[in-house]
């Protein structure tokens, strides 16, 4: 029964899955006012990273990160949320063929930024404008990782759509797993890039190696 040992891969995976579900629940609750979605997402990335590193307790980490990121993440969400609403309106209402290329281009640009911006906000100290700029810099300069992140999200959305049509009873499980599980899967992909900048900023500025200002790309130190 070695697989039931607390240090076994099975038990660690089970623990991560439970924590991902709890992070998802916390994000859902904290997103109820809608304008707090950005802070909820940033806090989710922070809590997931610390959980995978074995640092602290999920709930305490999440609530602290939600408070710390609230103002800046909310400003970022005002940009991404309003842009998303405009894109949805364009795709649903503006059925004009010449606009297809523009809509595809803007949707791709939005998706690239969205995949990186919340983790950057959670990981690095910077103003909202530079955080968004760095999201596109990271996304384009690490296009393979960006495609992997988008691919994970598309698989999840495809499962939700398929469940909606063919097996509605499975929707509850997918909602419970939700974006918290995706964040757990995204975090190692993102940290594979961030760790290089965290190390540089920490060594040059004597900072705690868990949150730095965005000095690597556009003036980035870690936030911890």
Automatic annotation (TrEMBL):
Residues passing through the membrane, by range: 20-41, 74-94, 100-122, 143-165, 171-190
Record key words, sorted: Membrane, Transmembrane, Transmembrane helix
Name by which UniProt lists this protein: Integral membrane protein
Protein's organism: Bifidobacterium [indicum] DSM 20214 = LMG 11587
Source organism phylogeny: Bacteria, Bacillati, Actinomycetota, Actinomycetes, Bifidobacteriales
């Amino acid at each position: 029964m070695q697989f039931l040992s607390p240090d076994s891969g099975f038990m660690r995976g089970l623990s991560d899955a439970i924590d991902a579900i709890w992070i998802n629940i916390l994000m859902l609750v904290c997103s109820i006012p809608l304008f707090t979605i950005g802070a909820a997402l940033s806090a989710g990335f922070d809590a997931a990273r610390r959980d995978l590193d074995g640092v602290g307790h999920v709930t305490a980490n999440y609530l602290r990160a939600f408070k710390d990121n609230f103002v800046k993440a909310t400003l970022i969400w005002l940009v991404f949320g309003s842009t998303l609403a405009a894109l949805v309106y364009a795709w649903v209402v503006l059925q004009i063929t010449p606009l297809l290329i523009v809509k595809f281009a803007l949707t791709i640009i939005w998706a690239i930024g969205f995949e990186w911006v919340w983790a950057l906000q959670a990981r690095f100290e910077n103003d909202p404008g530079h955080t968004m700029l760095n999201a596109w810099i990271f996304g384009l300069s690490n296009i393979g990782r960006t495609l992997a992140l988008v691919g994970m999200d598309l698989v999840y959305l495809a499962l939700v759509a398929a469940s909606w049509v063919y097996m509605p009873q499975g929707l509850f499980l997918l909602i419970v797993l939700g974006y918290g599980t995706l964040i757990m899967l995204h975090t190692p992909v993102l940290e594979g890039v961030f760790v290089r900048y965290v190390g540089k900023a920490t060594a040059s500025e004597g900072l705690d190696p868990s949150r730095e200002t965005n000095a690597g790309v556009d003036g980035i130190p870690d936030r911890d």
